């Protein structure tokens, strides 16, 4: 058995569509750029990932609770958060191809090229200079840096660049029944602000004590000018965020704790440690005093999958100032002098992972091609090596043939397992083809009903990854398979 060459993004996109994981949105109308629909298997995998994240946050931590805030928020929310004035990307156009690029991504790609060429110092120097210029909002110098690095358009092959300009990424719409009386509001560009404006509601109603966290899973929207790389960068996407409220001065301890906890999560769901790394931000967001990304090695290179940020008291303080409502916490615990800490605006450490990026990383990691057999019997095998708890279907029940009562027996077994975990029944085509169908969507176990089943109530379980088979009593199936496919296996590893 040997592994096939490295997976390409084209392999991933093709497999995702063919086997019901991800479809281009509105495809019958030629699609809509950077918008995708999750198919019947994709939605199961994505929901399983969200369920694991939610339980890891709210079930394993006594001091973290969840909310579900609305997508529409008062427009002053985005003024306080800084999005109205500062939520933009530096864009640059090539005059010959008319193609638009993000200036920072052009420079980051050049830095990656330096890394690949064995010049890490040059890569780091370029990223540091880019960070300095963007922080200073010196867009003309950013353009000059692109030209100095001899960065050319991939389409035209020229360096005939326009000036660098900032484009705000928020989608806007109107609320109100009469156009003249309508008010401008925004589709939220992140889910975090729904947590911040509900900070006191949750704290008081839940009698929460600092430190505590609020978790949320929800849709967000960004008018990405350069949207690419499948579901990695989309205009409509889903975030899984947790804001952890802490006493000022303790933020770096909690920042480092959450860094390690989040890396442990990704390994627990099956992402290999060697395909993950931390990447500290060269340029900090306006709200942060420390920031790091957890990057995964996608087919197109290491890219951000999750961000951990020390947001200070930026958000709560700005909301307090603009709303004129106190967003403070009274801390009755005693300091080193034996006095209560008293009232303060908490600091925040944020963990924010894209559900779509986590889906893509999980899918890329699971996609496996290998050569099995030898000589004339050698063939290529493709399957999704998903953690059993994440697989869309946990088990497929397959009658060896459809006659002699085997099909009826298999259907009865299917019905007995459905209440415990997602089960499918398949009696079409030869047994080998049915194994392949389940491999291609990542089903970890196939239960085969044969003639011996009719004699002793035992079945064969075929394991997806090893293709090994074992004989098991029907009465033991629910417990045996249930143990393997339980989210509990992942939570134990966290």
From TrEMBL:
ATP binds at residues 222-224, 232-237, 354-357. Homodimer. This is Glycine--tRNA ligase. The gene is glyQS. GO terms for molecular function: ATP binding; bis(5'-nucleosyl)-tetraphosphatase (asymmetrical) activity; glycine-tRNA ligase activity. Pfam families: HGTP_anticodon, tRNA-synt_2b. Substrate binds at residues 102, 190, 237-241, 350-354. Its main location: cytoplasm. The lineage of its organism: Bacteria, Pseudomonadati, Bacteroidota, Cytophagia, Cytophagales. It catalyses: tRNA(Gly) + glycine + ATP = glycyl-tRNA(Gly) + AMP + diphosphate. It is found in: Cytoplasm. It comes from Dyadobacter koreensis. Residues 126-392 form the Aminoacyl-transfer RNA synthetases class-II family profile domain.
């Amino acid at each position: 058995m040997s592994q096939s060459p490295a997976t390409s993004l084209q392999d991933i996109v093709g497999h995702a569509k063919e086997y019901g994981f991800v479809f281009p949105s509105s495809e019958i109308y030629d699609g809509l750029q950077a918008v995708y629909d999750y198919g019947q298997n994709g939605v199961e995998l994505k929901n399983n990932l969200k369920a694991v994240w939610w339980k890891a946050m709210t079930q394993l931590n006594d001091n973290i609770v969840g909310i579900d805030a609305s997508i529409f928020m008062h427009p002053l929310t985005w003024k306080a958060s800084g999005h109205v004035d500062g939520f933009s990307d530096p864009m640059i156009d090539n005059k010959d191809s008319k193609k638009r690029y993000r200036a920072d991504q052009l420079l980051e790609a050049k830095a990656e090229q330096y890394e690949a060429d064995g010049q890490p110092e040059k890569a780091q120097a370029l990223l540091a200079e880019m960070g300095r210029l963007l922080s200073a909002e010196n867009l003309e110098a950013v353009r000059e840096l692109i030209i100095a690095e001899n960065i050319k358009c991939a389409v035209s092959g020229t360096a005939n660049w326009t000036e660098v300009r900032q484009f705000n990424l928020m989608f806007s719409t109107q609320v109100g029944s009469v156009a003249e009386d309508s008010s401008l509001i925004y589709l939220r560009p992140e889910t975090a602000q729904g947590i911040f404006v509900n900070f006191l509601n949750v704290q008081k109603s839940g009698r929460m004590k600092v430190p505590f966290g609020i978790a949320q899973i929800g849709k967000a929207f960004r008018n990405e000018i350069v949207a690419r790389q499948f579901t990695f960068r989309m205009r409509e996407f889903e975030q899984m965020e947790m804001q952890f409220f802490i006493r000022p001065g303790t933020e770096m301890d909690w920042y480092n704790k959450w860094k390690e906890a989040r890396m442990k999560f990704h390994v627990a769901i099956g992402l290999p440690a060697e395909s993950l790394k931390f990447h500290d931000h060269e340029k900090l967001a306006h709200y942060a005093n420390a920031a790091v990304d957890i990057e995964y090695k996608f087919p197109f290179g290491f890219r951000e999958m999750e961000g951990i940020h020390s947001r200070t008291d930026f958000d709560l303080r700005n909301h307090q100032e603009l709303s004129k409502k106190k967003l403070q916490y009274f801390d009755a615990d005693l300091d080193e002098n034996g006095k209560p800490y008293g009232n303060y605006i908490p600091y925040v450490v944020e963990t924010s992972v894209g559900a779509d990026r986590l889906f893509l990383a999980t899918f890329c990691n699971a996609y496996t091609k290998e050569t099995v057999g030898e000589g004339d019997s050698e063939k290529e095998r493709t399957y999704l090596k998903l953690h059993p708890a994440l697989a869309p279907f946990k088990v497929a029940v397959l009658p060896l043939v459809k006659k002699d009562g085997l099909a009826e027996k298999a259907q009865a077994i299917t019905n007995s397992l459905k209440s415990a975990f997602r089960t499918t029944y398949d009696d079409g085509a030869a047994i080998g083809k049915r194994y392949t169908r389940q491999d291609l969507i990542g089903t970890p176990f196939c239960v085969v009903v044969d003639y011996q089943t009719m004699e002793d109530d035992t079945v064969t379980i075929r394991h997806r990854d090893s293709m090994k088979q074992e004989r098991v009593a029907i009465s033991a199936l629910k417990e045996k398979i249930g143990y393997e496919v339980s989210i509990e296996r992942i939570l134990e590893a966290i």
